[in-house]
């Protein structure tokens, strides 16, 4: 958690529900909130909305916190847990009741279902009809269960000047008297959100536009309480490449899947999500410092952004090329060990670190980087993949033998001498360097793709290189 931010009157929040993984839409919302707060020298806070006790899990909470930390989305102050604040939510509901801004509704579940059935039959919008709005509670009997409902205005309109959506209006006649406190005394989501935002000092509510309808109801509640109104900014949701709502088939995975399964770097995921629905000219690669300096809500588009897995891969490849070699080696070592089904030795790790500069330019994710390094640690004789086997067919083994003879006569195993020997073998065979390099690559790595052949020879060393060639001859 960050403790460096100064309030400056600007406070934003990210409020995930721990009923599932931290998905990329949530990450983008958190990122936008963080950047806006930091841009203005304000605070960014985290609230876990865990009031759905049946579906909220400790594992989901842990995954959210872990994902936030992995992405360096540092929040200010302690994490707020909504469920722990139920007494405060109840207090506010009773405050509204005492002030005449709310009332007790004694309608039974059966009565409410009959009301909805009649509205459905008449093809009317299904809303609470206000049957207890002006009735005397004594009509219900002393022990009758009740909910507390907001006495919402039914005349006029509610207007939101949204920083992304623009001016949005709803007629108050379209909104009913929402429940604030259930009959068992537990608060509803609407009440809890408004109270928590107020108590946390939230000045700007930046969230997905699927919450826009909630904002009208929440604003009525805020006005009934006489509290300061936050600035709203409702961000369009992320869609798949086909324009449909983002789902798992489009890549709507949990953050941990991008990290653990897909091998995406956190800075790459951040950069990609930043550019989904927000832009700064033609800039594609944007650092955190630049994003904080440039970020404004005015630059957030109104149209849904489209998720493009190929673009994410491209951005990730850029950040892999730019990443520190020691950091990459540490990240891919467990992946290599899993593929080999054995731990890496200290000498293995040193070899991996030396090889990263040649390996990373060809990898688009950590999985590819790990797979491309496997040849370094394979036990002789190598199992050749299908592509490598084809490279040794026809003239392949003859050309490999000529290269083996030339390399075996070298007095020193240096880049210059390796280059000269292989080129000499190609000239003696009357062919190009590539024709010799391909079967050589197959014998040395067991694959049809690898770093440059001279880098491979240097990394493996004389004894291992010649031994692998001999195995195939």
Automatic annotation (TrEMBL):
It is found in: Cytoplasm. Keywords: Aminoacyl-tRNA synthetase, ATP-binding, Cytoplasm, Ligase, Nucleotide-binding, Protein biosynthesis. It catalyses: tRNA(Glu) + L-glutamate + ATP = L-glutamyl-tRNA(Glu) + AMP + diphosphate. Residues 328-471 form the Aminoacyl-tRNA synthetase class I anticodon-binding domain. A motif ('HIGH' region) lies at residues 16-26. ATP binds at residue 248. Pfam families: Anticodon_2 (PF19269), tRNA-synt_1c (PF00749). It comes from the Bacteria. InterPro entries: aa-tRNA-synth_I_cd-bd, aa-tRNA-synth_I_codon-bd_sub2, aa-tRNA-synth_I_CS, aa_tRNA-synth_I_cd-bd_sf, Glu-tRNA-ligase_bac/mito, Glu/Gln-tRNA-synth, Glu/Gln-tRNA-synth_Ib_cat-dom, GluQ/Sye. GO terms for biological process: glutamyl-tRNA aminoacylation. Residues 10-313 form the Glutamyl/glutaminyl-tRNA synthetase class Ib catalytic domain. One of its GO terms (molecular function) is ATP binding. GO terms for cellular component: cytosol. Its EC number is 6.1.1.17. SUPFAM superfamilies: An anticodon-binding domain of class I aminoacyl-tRNA synthetases, Nucleotidylyl transferase. It is an enzyme of class 6 (ligase). A motif ('KMSKS' region) lies at residues 245-249. Catalyzes the attachment of glutamate to tRNA(Glu) in a two-step reaction: glutamate is first activated by ATP to form Glu-AMP and then transferred to the acceptor end of tRNA(Glu). HAMAP family: Glu_tRNA_synth_type1. Monomer. Belongs to the class-I aminoacyl-tRNA synthetase family. Glutamate--tRNA ligase type 1 subfamily. NCBIfam families: gltX_bact (TIGR00464). This is Glutamate--tRNA ligase. It comes from Tardibacter chloracetimidivorans.
């Amino acid at each position: 958690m960050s403790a460096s931010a100064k309030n400056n009157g600007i406070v934003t929040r990210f409020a995930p529900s721990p009923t599932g993984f931290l998905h990329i839409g949530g990450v983008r919302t958190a990122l936008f909130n963080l950047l806006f707060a930091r841009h203005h020298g304000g605070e960014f806070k985290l609230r876990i909305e865990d009031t759905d006790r049946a579906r909220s899990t400790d594992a989901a909470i842990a995954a959210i916190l872990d994902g936030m930390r992995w992405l360096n989305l540092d929040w200010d102050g302690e994490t707020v847990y909504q469920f722990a604040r139920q007494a405060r939510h109840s207090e506010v509901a009773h405050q509204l009741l005492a002030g005449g801004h709310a009332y007790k509704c004694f309608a039974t579940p059966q009565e409410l279902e009959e009301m909805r059935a009649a509205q459905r039959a008449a093809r009317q919008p299904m809303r609470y009809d206000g049957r207890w709005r002006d009735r005397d509670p004594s009509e219900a009997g002393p022990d009758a269960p009740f909910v507390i409902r907001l006495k919402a205005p039914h005349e006029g309109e509610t207007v939101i000047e949204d920083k992304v959506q623009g001016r949005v209006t709803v007629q108050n006649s379209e909104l009913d008297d929402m429940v604030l406190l259930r009959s068992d005394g537990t608060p509803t989501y609407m009440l809890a959100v408004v109270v928590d935002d107020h108590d946390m000092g939230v000045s700007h509510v930046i969230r997905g536009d699927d919450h826009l309808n909630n904002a009208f109801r929440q604003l009525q509640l805020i006005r009934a309480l006489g509290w300061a109104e936050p600035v709203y900014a409702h961000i369009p949701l992320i869609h798949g490449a086909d324009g449909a709502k983002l789902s798992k088939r489009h890549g709507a995975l949990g953050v941990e899947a991008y990290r653990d399964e897909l091998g995406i770097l956190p800075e790459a995921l951040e950069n990609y999500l930043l550019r989904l629905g927000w832009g700064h000219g033609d800039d594609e690669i944007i650092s955190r410092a630049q994003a904080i300096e440039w970020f404004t809500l005015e630059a957030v588009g109104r149209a849904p952004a489209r998720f493009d897995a190929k673009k994410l891969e491209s951005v990730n490849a850029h950040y892999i090329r730019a990443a520190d070699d020691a950091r990459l080696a540490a990240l891919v070592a467990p992946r290599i060990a899993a593929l080999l089904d054995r731990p890496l030795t200290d000498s293995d790790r040193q070899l991996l670190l030396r090889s990263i500069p040649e390996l990373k330019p060809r990898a688009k994710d950590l999985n590819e980087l790990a797979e491309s390094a496997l040849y370094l640690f394979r036990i002789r004789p190598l199992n050749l993949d299908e592509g490598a086997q084809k490279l040794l067919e026809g003239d392949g083994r003859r050309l490999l033998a000529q290269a083996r003879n030339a390399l075996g006569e070298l007095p020193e195993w240096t880049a210059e001498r390796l280059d000269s020997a292989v080129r000499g073998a190609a000239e003696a065979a009357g062919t190009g360097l590539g024709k010799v390099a391909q079967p050589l690559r197959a014998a040395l790595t067991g694959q049809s793709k690898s770093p440059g052949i001279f880098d491979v020879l240097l990394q493996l060393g004389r004894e291992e290189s010649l031994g692998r060639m001999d195995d195939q001859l």
